[in-house]
Amino acid sequence: MEGDRLEPAVTIKNIERELICPACKELFTHPLILPCQHSICHKCVKEILFFTLEDSFTDLGSESSNQSSPRIRIHSPSLDRIDRVNRSGWKRNSLTPRTTIFPCPGCRHDVDLGERGINGLFRNFTLETIVERYRQAARAATAIMCDACKPPPQESTKSCMDCSASYCNECFKIHHPWGTVKAQHEYVGPTTNFRPKILMCPEHEMERVNMYCEICRRPVCHLCKLGGSHANHRVTTMSTAYKTLKEKLSKDIEYLISKESQVKGQISELGLLMKETECNGERAKEEASNNFDKLFDVLEERRSAALRAIEVSKNLRLEKLQTQIEEYQGLLENNGLVGYAQEVLKETDQSCFVQTAKQLHVRIQKATESLRSFRPAAQTSFEDYVVDITKQEEVLGDLSFYSSGLDVPEINEEKSRMYNKALICWEHLVKEDSADTYILEYRKLNREEENATWQEIEACSKSKVISDLENNSSYAFRVRGYKGSICSPWSREVILHTPAAPVFSFLFDDKCGYNSERLMLNPRRTSVESRAGFPLLLGAERIQVGCYTTLDYIIGDTGITKGKHFWAFHVESYSYLVKVGVASNTKLQEWLHNPRDVTSPRYEQDSGHDSGSEDTCFDSSQPFTLITVGMNKFFIPKAPTAPKDSANRILPMPSCIGICLDCDRGKVGFYDADHMKCLYERQVDCSGTMYPAFALMGSAGIHLEEAITAKYLEYRDDM
Fold first, then answer.
1. Residue ranges of the alpha helices (H) in 8-150?
2. Residue 704 in contact with residue 527, Cβ under 8 Å?
3. Which pLDDT band, with edges at 50, 70 and 90, does 535 fall under?
4. SS3 352
5. Can you give the pLDDT at residue 97?
6. C-alpha separations of 672 from 403, 654, 712 in Å
7. What percent of the chain shows pLDDT beyond 70?
8. Where in this chain does the record put each COS domain (predicted)?
9. Shortest CA distance to 482 belongs to which of 498, 458, 500?
10. Bridge partners, 560 (sequence order)
11. Across-strand partners of 599?
12. Which residues have CB under 8 Å from 693's CB, separation 6+?
């Protein structure tokens, strides 16, 4: 082992980069081996866990949490990382946590430290020894003093690994006399790095490691293999692992050494690339500066022209106003025109007076008329000289580096949707994953404000959830991709419409009137299907001509008493007959407590049959409203406001149907929820508690629209 100390110092100094902790950026101190095989200082592990699990919850994203420790220089943990650490099961003040998630600063991945956390990690003694040799090489001029000498201490010549102390020659002989047990101690050259002779198992502290787990790639003891966490893992003896790994490492090192000339050539090539990059970067800066200078020249030219035009107009107006002032000053007594006229009146010769007074009288009349209808000779306002830079400002705001290699993202209208929030999805049609980040912009389309300001939000994936959009409004969306400082052009603008009212959340009620024999709910109670099975065949003998069997009703589990609400759902394309709408609690009691096996079409107010009685019996203020959907058709009920032609009352069934209930105005509307277009609206009596109501007959299925959540989006991106 003493021979290791005699290796050339220059060799040790050349590997300094490998001896730096990725967290504190200093030489390793008691390094631990993480499951990802990266090493990190023991103190850094403790500090990172502390700041991740403590400070992150009190000051998320705060830089102060890292600045409080001069050692740690890693970024603050992200929200999703904190969420993963939260889910890991680590609990404050818990002695036996289930598992601990640790963000490795080396590979930037989260690693599982297992149940024992830090206590389950091995110290990297090999790395620790190399670091100590490096420190010795760095401080070769600084001697290690004897720990046993009386002051003043002498320079040490040996270090005992068993005593963990350094000695000079005299003290070593005194503390390690011949013929004693201490004489058998292991000693090396002077060092401050004392490591145990035997590597012990961190999980079973009294057992030494004697096997190597090939699955976990770490040393284990025989108890770990017998009944511990490595019971079912493939293991090998430590000697076999040592021999195998040493052979592989030696071969790899020999291969790299044999390729030394190739490595030097590639280093030279990289050096040339650095110089080329430097030159190209300076050239790009010069070109960018020249382009901006051209813009400045154009702006300066336009600025000078605009200022000249304003100056000419100003001087012309001032000249006109000055002339008008002089004319009005002439109307004053003993001045100008009036003074001249007064002198003319003194003329006594009639012929001479008439000759001069005629023209003077015309001038006096004009001055009198101008005095009666005073108007300035020029306008003081310069409204016509206001420079409109709105479009130019927007264009300059988008000024960036364009690259033909960066694909333009396009918003996918089929995947994007509006409900309680907006979910905007986009994709690259040519190159997949050609951008690192995206900027999504949106603005409300308002007739009163044509040029509304774009609001932007950054996204790291190809979808984004936007909250706080106004109801019953239209929004334009566009997206562009960024790769470093290079950005793509904006995508085509897509216009989406928000629901007419706040989204009302509910589930199907599995208790009130729910018929489990003919209806089937999913576990989440968001979908219902009617099963036209054996019970329907048993009741077939009661079916008469012109009649159909009873509809199976199901309602929402939450009622509405006031306000305006919107909800949406999907009707399966194979559905034969489905009725959807709203019903009051009084009508529901009639439906659910007085069932009929057979129902005539005439009994159904919204059946859509031309019986003739519906026109005379129609009441515009019923406590319920149900419209008929089926066979991929949407049937508008017969009403005074509806088209008389039956063909015009049959529309294609929207893929998503929306209902808007306004209890305050007593109205209910049925929408094409994909385009937020109202297909039918009528009055409804909202004096009681109103419930979303559905009815199915035959094979049919209804699925409630799923609310958009940021959590749902994250899971979707992970998949």
1. 9-13, 42-50, 56-58, 64-67, 79-87, 125-138
2. yes
3. low
4. helix
5. 42
6. 41, 6, 24
7. 76
8. 345-402
9. 458
10. 690
11. 548
12. 553, 554, 555, 556, 579, 580, 581, 582, 583, 588, 624, 626
Confirm if 482 and 461 have CB atoms less than 8 A apart.
Answer: no
Report how far apart the first and last C-alpha atoms of the chain are (Å, whole number).
53
Nearest C-alpha neighbor of 187 from the set 168, 201, 202, 206? 168
Does residue 677 contact residue 386 with C-beta atoms inside 8 Å? no
* Fold classified for 519-596+621-638+648-704: Jelly Rolls (2.60.120)
Helix and strand numbers, DSSP H then E, in the chain: 18, 36
Smallest CA-to-CA distance from 689 within 554, 558, 510 is with 558
State the pLDDT at residue 129.
Answer: 79
Strands 667-672 and 657-662: antiparallel
- Long-range residue pairs from 258-266, CB within 8 A, at least 24 positions apart, any chain: none
Tokens 């009508």 correspond to: 587
> C-alpha distances in angstroms, 312 versus 144, 160, 226, 233?
89, 97, 99, 92
Q: Please give the pLDDT value at position 13.
A: 53
Nearest to 655 by CA among 591, 596, 570: 570
For residue 57, pLDDT over 70 is answered with no
- Tell me how crowded residue 332 is: count the other CB atoms within 10 A of its CB: 11
Give yes or no for a contact between 685 and 623, defined as CB atoms under 8 angstroms apart. yes
711 φ/ψ sector (left φ>0, alpha ψ -120 to 50, else beta): alpha
State percent of the chain over pLDDT 90: 18
pLDDT in tens, 196-218: 656 778 778 778 888 888 887 88
The CA distance from 573 to 578, in Å, is 11
Domain with CATH 2.60.40.10 in the chain: 410-498
Q: What per-residue confidence (pLDDT) applies to 640?
A: 62
CB-based contacts of 16-19 (< 8 A; 24+ apart in sequence): 16/134, 19/127, 19/130, 19/131, 19/134
Q: What is the DSSP secondary structure assignment for residue 344, as one 8-state letter? A: H
Q: How confident is the model at residue 717 (pLDDT cuts 50, 70, 90)?
A: very low
CA distance 234 to 215: 6
Name residue 271's amino acid: G
Among 235, 241, 239, which Cα is nearest to 223's? 235
pTM of the predicted model over 0.70: no
| pLDDT band, very low/low/confident/very high, at 5 (cuts 50, 70, 90) | very low
**DSSP annotation string for 623-646:** SEEEEEEETTEEEPPP-TTS-SSG
Cβ neighbours for 117, distance < 8 A, ≥ 6 positions apart: 49, 90, 97, 100
pLDDT at residue number 609: 40
Most confident of 123-132, 603-612, 629-638, 657-666: 657-666
Q: Where in the chain is the domain with CATH 2.60.120.920?
A: 519-596+621-638+648-704
Decide if 214 contacts 236 (C-beta within 8 A): yes
- For residue 27, count CB atoms less than 10 angstroms from its CB and return exposed for 0-12, middle for 13-18, buried for 19 or more: middle
Q: What are the C-alpha distances in Å from 665 to residues 375, 563, 587?
A: 56, 9, 20
> 629 near 575, Cβ under 8 Å?
yes
- Which residue's structure tokens are 């009349």? 365
89 pLDDT above the threshold of 50 = no
Q: Locate tokens 């108007």: which residue?
A: 375
User: Residue 177: its pLDDT value, please?
Assistant: 83
Is pLDDT of 315 > 70? yes
